[in-house]
Amino acid sequence: MSTQLQLIVTADCPADGRTWVPFEGKCYHFVHGEEDQIKSYTFDRAKSLCLGFELLTVQSREENDFVIKYSPKVWKGVVNVWLGMYYDTDSEEMRWFDEDSEQFTNWEDNVLSSDILPMDTCVALRSNTGKWEKVSCLDDVENGVICEASQQAEEVKPKPSALVSLLVILSVLAIVGVSAGIWFLHKKNNHGSSIFAAFEYHPPFRVLETDQSCLVEAEDADNLP
To answer: What letter does residue 167 receive in the DSSP assignment?
Structure first.
């Protein structure tokens, strides 16, 4: 039976010092506190508050319901939230700034006022009902801003289990043991060799036996009459 290690996927929201709320693969920042002192924003001002991120885009009923349920935790009363939607003059329809065409919609029953030009049309979400209202990008101001960012997925490898670590240690010990056994067998088969042979001690000025024999013969020759 083999054990397969799998990668664990985690997700993080932007770490820019602001409060981000994760929900289904996205992160949401409800502008509040010092950012929300005026509570009256033009469309351009709302975009600038998101600091490089997009205004809220709503792609499903669940996401729309999440905004409605979480808004009272941040704001009191009814808040109209700017959505990241605009009128595309090329397709002559409303589109999200992330270039996805609208799939889920939750429009108010009222029709667009005739005094708003199509190219000046933006959208606001009412926090009490979740309905969307078409408003002027230039003339209207709203009192709610929600910024949106994608969660950053990061793959994290799990730490190896204790069993895997034990098997690695046993494998290393087995390799060392086999190597040591082969070395001792090799030394046993080579009887005349020794690892210390190369370091055999020889006294300085050692006189060999053949040299001694020559000296004795020379002395005998000198003593002859």
So the answer is: H
